[in-house]
Amino acid sequence: GLSQYSSDPRTEWDLSAHSTREQVLEAVRNLRYKGGNTFTGLALTHVLEQNLKPDAGARLEAEKLVILLTDGKSQDDANLAAQTLKNLGIEIFAIGVKNADEAELRQVASEPLELTVYNVLDFPLLGSLVGKLTRVLCTRIKERSHKETADTPVNTGPQLSPTDLKISAVTSKSMHLAWSPPLRPPKKYRVVYYPSKGGTPREVVLEGAVSSVQLSNLTSHTEYLLSVIPVYGAAVGDGLRGVTSTLPLSSPRSLRVSELTHNSLRLSWKAAQGATHYLVLCSAAPDGAED
């Protein structure tokens, strides 16, 4: 499977798209370069949520490897996204070209770094890595396959996917999510949420027996995109998606002015629910305006 990224990741083809070497090579020949920025963290999250799920051809019992190819320093938090993949048993190989940040490559890649981090000065030199990288990848898959016995049958569809996402108790700062678990409970859930107009994704990881979560410390009057993703070993099932907006902050009401003197006045108002402080601003009216 292959995804290409800049500001926004794009799946070029899924793991299940091609079944022969010739088909893959033809797809590579037809690939168009996607220019733009370098949001590596967003790309890794895209691979996890979109490319490593059963509908995209990811087999639950198969080892999961991600090869990151980049020619620049990430403009978002690549390390956090990479750590999420590694915590799920997904191995990351990092290959840098030209202006890639080697320190970042070493943060993102899995251990041992002498096998998973590569850096070359220019794109034509990538060809020199193919033989070694192929041998390392095949060896790693064999080693990991021998260590881990597959205890999960290959199932896709409703058995692996939660349903019926319910969003309730929405306030200016919080909301409650609940869902119906799949027929086969996952090991964990990843709940990812972020403002629809842009912002750093935040994440909560829950045990598979839990089917609800309270999201707090949100921004008021903001539309949020929500994802609930079931995790089975090193694979992810189809996630639930939702969108909702937090409430605006309440405002003080019924402003009244009293006790006027030549240099003072008293203000009073109906309190705003949840307010901890008030900021009161006053200025003299411009000349000629009604006092």
UniProtKB/TrEMBL annotation:
Localization: Secreted, Extracellular space, Extracellular matrix
InterPro entries xref list: ECM_Assembly_Org, FN3_dom, FN3_sf, Ig-like_fold, VWF_A, vWFA_dom_sf
Name this protein carries in UniProt: COKA1 protein
The Fibronectin type-III domain, residue ranges: 161-250
Species whose genome carries this gene: Donacobius atricapilla
Positions of the VWFA domain: 1-133
SUPFAM superfamilies, per database record: Fibronectin type III (SSF49265), vWA-like (SSF53300)
Entries under Pfam families matching the protein: fn3 (PF00041), VWA (PF00092)
Keywords linked to the UniProt accession: Extracellular matrix, Secreted
CDD domains xref list: FN3
Upper classification of the organism: Eukaryota, Metazoa, Chordata, Craniata, Vertebrata
